[in-house]
Amino acid sequence: MAAALELVSSNKVFGGDLRKYKFKSAALGGLSANFNLFLPSQSATAKVPILFYLAGLTCTEDNGDVILLAQKGSFFEPAAANGIAILFPDTSPRGAGVAGEDDDWDFGTGAGFYLNATTPNYASHYQMLTHVTLELPQVIEAAGLPVDLSRQSIFGHSMGGHGALTLYLASQTNQYRSASAFAPICNPINCPWGQKAFKGYLQGGVEEAQDKYDATELIKKHKGPVNILIDYGTGDNFYKQGQLLPENFVAAAQGKDVTVRAQEDYDHSYYFISTFAADHVNFHAKFLRQ
């Protein structure tokens, strides 16, 4: 049985409502979990499609909406125009009490990497793949919220871009109709962020991650059509440091319907995301309205 939702707050925005909910998460080992949900005005009369936004390292459920709201409305204005709900999960469990989970900014709290951990110390709580793909849709449905779960898509930034691409490509049920990403970690088995996460969360380390949690490896083997949009900035320091590796993804995706755009001089920040936010929401709208 899905856990009951508690409404924490609600704010009117672009004719719709931005709501914060919390609930006791079974996937995260019984910890309290928060998420934010934007419901457009169209949800007052009919169920609407839903777009999941996965945030990056150190972020919470608030980063994608509260920060971006201050920059030209960002996701909410095009989502309202298209009648699309947007759900913003947290980036990791909170307060799991695992030794060392708060030692580094790029691992542990705020850095769940949207995978299911298999190392004994993290496996009890760090089940972010299950939390995002199964648990959150279940609690939304159980609460009777006006969302059409037969029409889901997913996007994200940085670590969240990694999550969006891998959850989309690895889905055995074609759960998401489309995926997009801002400055995603495209080939994490070959970059420091990904290697650190996989060695810490997975008993099989990088080798275990290769077939499950690496978009570049997954796109090589993916059968059937894909609907993917990626933007990254050539001025992004993390791109320059070899953390993102979009060229590897492009090479692996030859012959597939993938659009990867190098945006000249843009960095890794929310200014970059807000500039192209409407492009991404409108991209998903093409598939969600069908």
TrEMBL record:
It is found in: Cytoplasm. GO terms for molecular function: carboxylic ester hydrolase activity; S-formylglutathione hydrolase activity. Pfam families: Esterase. SUPFAM superfamilies: alpha/beta-Hydrolases (SSF53474). The keyword Mitochondrion does not apply. Its EC number is 3.1.2.12. Its main location: cytoplasm. Keywords: Cytoplasm, Hydrolase, Serine esterase. It catalyses: S-formylglutathione + H2O = formate + glutathione + H(+). The active site is at residues 158, 236, 268. One of its GO terms (cellular component) is cytosol. Gene3D superfamilies: alpha/beta hydrolase. GO terms for biological process: formaldehyde catabolic process. Serine hydrolase involved in the detoxification of formaldehyde. Belongs to the esterase D family. This is S-formylglutathione hydrolase.
